[in-house]
Amino acid sequence: MKNDRWRNALHEAGHAAMYAGHGIESRAMLLSNGGMVSIDPPGPSPVGRLYAMVLQAGQEAEKLADEAEPPEPPDGDESKLPQAGDVLPKQRANISAGFRAAVDDDLAVARAIVTYCHSHGQALDVDAWGKRLKLVQDKTQQFVRRNKAAIIGIARELYLTGVIDIVPDDEGGFEISRKQDSECSGARSAEAGGPFRG
Ligand SMILES: [Zn+2]
């Protein structure tokens, strides 16, 4: 993914919105070379179709850059907006390690599809891979279109702040909370929650 803060913010917002749409809290972060979403609190990654859709939602949401503008930075200078490591300095090393360890979305989608097929006894059924991938792509596209305003809202907040938590509510929506330095005690495992990038 090219280093374009607004596209990155939309991309990560797509991942986070898909999590939130399925009741899963996550943390979205921007880094100097991309972005990342991790499940918050850390836990095992969801598997199967949902996980493939979460992964696929990044590049799908990135397409919204053609129809939505980023917010204006407070002092008009995008380069002064914070990265995740600036907001959470105590976790800087963990964040960097998580980013380095993360797998690119395309590869992760492919793995999720094959894992899903495997769980249905179709591990080597290439036709099944294709059908399930198409289903994931179609459903993700529908989700992103249907939740366009929410995704743009998450992306705008993330674009300005560098780190946000997206917390699902009981009505199928979600709340966004900003992170501050004082809140960032406690190490976060790089692997937990299956962070992904790109
Ligand atoms: Zn991604």
Q: Would you kindly provide a written description of the structure presented here, covering whatever features stand out?
A:
- Strand 1 and strand 2 form a beta hairpin.
- With 198 residues, the protein is of the alpha+beta class.
- It has a six-stranded mixed sheet with strand order 3-6-2-1-4-5, sandwiched between helices.
- The protein contains seven helices and six strands, in the order H-E-E-H-H-H-E-H-H-H-E-E-E.
- The termini are close together.
- Helices cover 48% and strands 14% of the residues.
- It has one domain.
- The protein has helices spanning 5-21, 48-62, 84-87, 92-101, 105-119, 126-146, 148-161; strands at residues 26-31, 34-39, 103-104, 163-168, 174-178, 196-197.
- Helix 2 runs antiparallel to helix 5 (105-119).
- The chain is globular.
- Residues 11, 15, 58, 105, 196-198 line the site of zinc ion.
- Residues 11, 15, 58, 105, 196-198 line the site of zinc ion (ZN).
Ordered list of secondary-structure elements with their pairings:
Layout lengths: L4 H17 L4 E6 L2 E6 L8 H15 L21 H4 L4 H10 L1 E2 H15 L6 H21 L1 H14 L1 E6 L5 E5 L17 E2 L1
Parallel strand pairs: 3-6
Antiparallel strand pairs: 1-2, 1-4, 2-6, 4-5
Helix pairs in contact: 1-2, 1-7, 2-5, 2-6, 5-6
The protein binds zinc ion.
Please name the defining characteristics of this protein.
binds zinc ion, alpha+beta, 198 residues, disordered C terminus, 48% helix, globular
Roughly what percent helix? 40-55%
Q: What kind of sheet is the major sheet? A: 6 strands, mixed
Question: In terms of structural class, how would the helical and strand content be classed?
Answer: alpha+beta
- Termini distance? 5 Å
- Ligand inventory: zinc ion
Q: What sort of overall outline do the alpha carbons produce when their principal axes are compared?
A: globular
